[in-house]
Amino acid sequence: MSEEFKIEIVNPEKSFLSKEDVTEVVVPAFEGEMGILKDHISIISFLKPGIIKIFSKSGEEHYYVEDGIVEFKNNNLSVLTSSIFNIKDFDKDKISELLTQAEEYSKNSEITDQNKYLVDQKIDVLKTLN
Amino acid sequence: MATLDDLKKRIASVKSTQKITKAMKMVAAAKLRKAQENAEKGRPYSEKMNNIILNLSSGISDKENAPKLLSGTGEEKIYLCIVLTSDRGLCGGFNSNIIKKAKAYFKKLSEEGKILKIITVGSKGYDQLKRVYKDSIVEKISFKESKTINYLDAEKVGKLIIENFEKKEFDVCTIFYNKFKNVITQIPQEQQIIPLKTSEVEENSSEDNYEFEPDEDEILSNLLPKNISTQIFKAMLENSASEQGSRMSAMDSATRNAGEMVDKLTIEYNRSRQAAITKELIEIISGAESL
To answer: Which is it for strands A32-36 and B186-194: parallel, antiparallel or unpaired?
Structure first.
């Protein structure tokens, strides 16, 4: 029996990625990283800033996301996100640009706890990339 | 009767107008293809988002405590209408159709004694509405600077709506836009986004039980604001495709009309030229005869 399932990543502008031969996906869910294999129970969760890791026959791919929702149902994984980047396309300048933005935002005193948590996550992830 | 020279000038001017409308048609056709592509590419996102929300809201057990964005404030007094139009003119009935639809809705509201608030997106809508509804317009937004429709713009509008909603500035929110059907037909739409119409939930309810992480309420309250931006983005994409389609067909008929006018003027020009020649000949002949 094959161990593969489908993944589709869409952002508002277009369908970002669609693959049929995925064996495992690790998503940065709000309450911690979550690995998804075939025949996972139907689940809806939302994402915090982090890296989506996709393992497929053709290798391993990494994407950086800032937010989004994942839905898994009938071996179809849908990821809806408004900001996603392929790690390969990331250069130092882009990372440091995002990093400074995030740091400025976190200094804002009116920030809510939840946003603070999210932005701290973002800074951590970006720092590991840098 | 116009002199030969006048006619000649008019033909030239109509011809140059025709050139402009023809060029505009070409540009609109090229832009239309792109806008249409974008609208199609954007559909999966909003559809998926809608599905998830439908699944979620049908799964919610405690209707009383459902997020306000879904269930409404419990009152229906203040109506906020978002009217999405274009920033440029010369696109046939595109803007007027939306405005017509919106005005009919406004009239219905004022008859029912509701309070009306309007946000216009796109400068043409503001121009048309300000004469009658100047006091109701709370905000006008225009994205003239952005070359293409992008999600950030939609998000700005979405955030504004949610901010106002949280301040309890309105109870019901409706958006007006043109849905792109094909190049000749665009259908003006009114779509209620707050509270979310849940009429489709019943037909679409699936038996699937989802696992939620964190719980349903938290996901829903996170998702609903996003959904508003998404719906607005979808409306903006549909609108831009409709605008180009509408402009293309308007410019096409303008080009055709100009062609007809050139033909008519050319016939008139030739006739009067002939008449002038005949007149001259008669004068010469009668002059020779009198000798």
So the answer is: unpaired
pTM, two decimal places: 0.83
> Choosing among B38, B45, B52, B230, which should be mutated to test the A contact, i.e. which has the most A CBs within 10 A?
B45
Q: B211 and A78: CB-CB below 8 Å?
A: no
Using CA coordinates, name the residue in chain A closest to B46.
A12
Reported ipTM: the value is 0.76
For residue B160, give the nearest of B143, B180, B147 by alpha carbon: B143
Q: Which one of A8, A13, A41, A65 makes the best mutation probe of the B interface by having the most chain B beta carbons within 10 Å?
A: A13
> Tens-of-pLDDT digits for all 291 residues of chain B?
568 899 999 999 999 999 999 999 999 999 999 998 888 888 888 888 888 887 777 766 666 666 777 777 777 888 999 999 998 888 888 999 999 999 999 999 989 888 899 999 988 889 889 888 888 888 888 888 777 778 888 888 888 888 888 888 888 899 999 988 888 888 998 888 888 765 554 444 455 577 777 777 777 777 888 888 888 888 998 899 999 999 999 999 999 999 999 999 999 999 999 999 999 999 999 999 988
Cis (ω within 30 of 0) for the bond into B214? yes
A112 touches chain B (CB under 8 A): no
- Each domain of chain B, given as residue ranges in start order, spans 4-22+251-289, 39-250
Nearest to B151 among A29, A69, A82 (CB): A82
Q: What CA–CA distances, in Å, run from B8 to B25, B93, B244, B254, B255?
A: 26, 32, 34, 21, 19
Which CATH superfamily, name and number, covers A5-86?
A: F0F1 ATP synthase delta/epsilon subunit, N-terminal (2.60.15.10)
CATH class of B39-250: alpha beta
Question: Going by CATH, does the domain composed of B4-22+251-289 fall within 1.10.287.80?
Answer: yes
By Cβ distance, the residue of A10, A44, A80 closest to B219 is: A44
Q: Is A57 helix (H, G, I), strand (E, B) or coil?
A: coil
